[in-house]
Amino acid sequence: MNDDQGIEVKDSQNTGASMIPQGPRAGKVVFAYLDKILKDKAARGLKDKFLRNYKMTRNVYFKENSSAEVPRISGNMIFRHRTQTVNTLTDNNPTFNVARVSGEDESGKIADIIHKTTQFWWMETEQQAVLADSITNGETYGCCIEKVIFDPEKEYGLGEVDTIVVDPYHFGSWPPKEMDIQKCEAVYHFYPMSVRAVKRMFGEKAKKVKPDAELLSEMGDERAEIMRGSSEHDSFFTTFGGVVKEILGMGTGEEVEPGDEETVVVECWVKDYTMIEESVEEVVEMQNPANGMVEQIVQERVSTRPKYTGFIRKITVANGGDVILEDVSNPSISPELPEEDAVLCYLYDKFPFIREHSNRDTSDPWGMSDIEQIEELQKQFNRTLSQVAFMKDAVVRSQLLNPETSGVANEEFTNVMAVLNPVNAEEALGIKWLEAPQIPEDMYRCMDTYKSILFLVAGTFDVSAATEAGGQLAYKAINALLEQVGVLMRGKIRNYGRLIRERGRMFVSLMFNYYNEDRWISYEEQNGDQKQMQINGTEMVIPARITVVSGSTLPVSKVQQREEAITLFDKGAIDEQELLKKLEYDGWQEIVKRMREGPLGQIMGRLQLSGVPEPLIEYFQQVAQMEEDALKDALRKNEAQAFPQVLEQVMQEGGIQGDPIQEQMQQAELAKIQMEVARLRAEAMKAEADSMLKQEQVVTERVKQQIQVQGVKFDEEKLQIERAKVVSQIKEAESNSMAKGSGNRPGYNERGLKSNNVEG
Fold first, then answer.
1. What is d(CA 167, CA 54) in angstroms, rounded to the nearest whole number?
2. Do the bridges between strand 262-271 and strand 312-318 make them parallel or antiparallel, or are there none, so unpaired?
3. Which one, of 186, 203, 347, 335, lies nearest residue 267 by Cα?
4. What is the dihedral of CA 472, 474, 475, 478, to 10 degrees?
5. Do residues 458 and 373 lie in contact, with contact meaning Cβ atoms separated by under 8 Å?
6. Beta strand pairing status for 432-433 and 519-524?
7. Is the pTM of this model over 0.85?
8. pLDDT tens-digit readout, 485-508
């Protein structure tokens, strides 16, 4: 598609077709326009602004070094603001949406594959880190630039889409006042590069490339002007030397090894509307007047087409334009992609560059940063802090008053215990420490005021301001704080959201063109399972548009999400899967899977592992889910098949007629299935019998307990009867003893005893 051999160029002078002519003069013109771009940047004061902002982020505020007499201290709030802004805007990966613009898409299948591929590319190539670098540039210089290309050397030669963060020092566009890059006539990316790397990359075309420092030293005479009709009188030597010194920063005096010397490489992406003519053979059917037959005749016709795909041309030059390294058609479109597919690609007629701003300025295409608004407040804060440090040093350096007539030398006053002998006692009373001045409280209030105004202007929040009375930061307060941050950063979110969206669209376009070999991607399903998929970009070319959910990169309160998930689960608004997912519980996917399968699902999984055919597994699941009465009724009405019928049907569908070995294998498989079913049935019957046995044991145990209780009651009643009988016997004995009367003489009526009286 880009081969121009044998094609006649219609407009060889390129009049009006492009700002860059055809042929060897193109390199000099490219360099001349670069000189104009650099002069415009200098006139806007961009170099000084970029350098000043960079110094402030590096905490370089004072030209003089700190000294013991006058300390110079800076508390860099600008660095803190930039860091917090970058971290806030890149806290989460963006959420992409892909939709087809027109045509059929098999129910969105291709768009879904593009969406999964984009998400995989973003994660696999660490695009979030690249986004952080871009936003850091945007918050430092006021604008950030990215270039999205396909690098064939990445991924071990397979190639991958690469995002390059372009330094604002090394970027320009023509005309310089145009805000939208895609409306510019040309976009420049210029950078220093070692001569060795240039020769490795461009091969034979770069054999004449020399270090620009060496080339400058060899140029002893002025060259002719290269801009035809230009009103300027700068010689090419002046232009070339100024550009090289501007980019390389020569004059450092550092020695480098041969081959490591640098040269300025300039990429010029320009719109070129040059048309070419070519002869095209086509077959037409015509009627032969002689015989009236329709015959096919080959005719030649001249057609015109753009010389450069999408009217985009890339020119790469070195050594001030003396060496043209590359002059090709739009490299964002593969020559192997058919024209009807190429026009559907986003980069078909666009430059692969993105320029976005921290804060937009409708009169300045370079935008403005927050540093321009708060740098004076930062300086005043630093001065106040330095003054406090100076007064602090004065306070700690107390002075001793020693009268000259005291008779005590100054050297005698030390930190060591000693005896001092003043000559004059009255003068000795004057020896004392002078009271040091105190630091005014207004100094601290002044610092707090400067800091508060600085954060107010910058739109930065202090998290400590959201604490509640108890000192804790509730999730509701965090949520309100994050919402307020989103409101204050709405402009930045919108601008950097466009940056992400443009990067994603350029990736999809390059994927369509250069993912021409099968490769694998991985993605996560809603249930958390990781899946793999084989893709080929050339088979997914559709008119699609990729968008980014606004604010998806902002931080989200995990505490708030978990509290809300628990509340919603308690109210039945979400299920266990969503709850465990929000809680980020370890292994929640397996937990949800086990809960959904239940005991029956686990048994079916074992049957499947044992080799039971899938139709039988489905039949078992259907039967297990039916009630017994419903199953009997369905079998009676022939609405459900009996197991022998299903088994016979499976054997007929899976068997091979006339193959005895296959039949034996089927019979063995059937016997295996029957054994497994019998085993499961036996296990079920055994489980049921065990359950019934346990129930009978419970009843028996209850009867035993009742018998024991009755026995205890019987024993208690028997004891009561025996106790009453004993009491009755005791009472009867006492009654008989009292009935004998006076004949009862205690001490003399014992049985078996004789009198102990002795006569006379």
1. 12
2. antiparallel
3. 186
4. -80
5. yes
6. unpaired
7. no
8. 666 778 888 899 999 999 999 999
